[in-house]
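Technical note accompanying the year-one report. For the benefit of new consortium partners, we illustrate the data format agreed upon in the data management plan: each record pairs a sequence with a structure-token string. No post-processing was applied to the example shown here.
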Amino acid sequence: MSNLELINLLQRITGLTAFVLLFIQIVLGSNMDFWRKKFGSIALKIHIANGLLAYTFILLHPLLMIAFRYFLYGKIDPYYVFTDFCVLCEKPYDYYINFGRLALLSVTIAVFAGLFRGANLWMRKNWRKLHILNYLAFYFVSIHSYNIGADSSTKLFIYTFWFFQIVVLYIVLSKLRQLLLKLRS
């Protein structure tokens, strides 16, 4: 197995694992009160551990892209991987890479909001508003993976992908319903 093949395999593994862990994070975080009643304080510990693990895989995925491009082109180019946004992209691939970049940015803000939720009064009051970016990150990852993921055409991925979409959409609609009911009363 060549360096490029190994890096590509690791990139696929980290991308798919990050997607699954982000889904689990949303399911756990969307109804933490329920999980705490059922499992006690361990629920929050699992949520935090899963979040850190998910973020690790999310970070590894683009770092492996830097390594892949190094072995392909012979130069290290983090600019392309992290910041080379385009609105009118030359290739559809670059357009969908943007969704990965946006997901990384969204989830980074959400992770830091969770980690520093007790840092000051403003964070104690507002960290959840920033943590909601995980939902946005999930949809950015979904668009990114569905359109350029190497495994996106396999049946297992397609079934898992649509199951995740339905569950997260249900969670989002439930949260919006709760918010509307709260605003009405």
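Partners are asked to follow this layout when depositing records. The CA atoms of residues 113 and 127 lie 5 Å apart.
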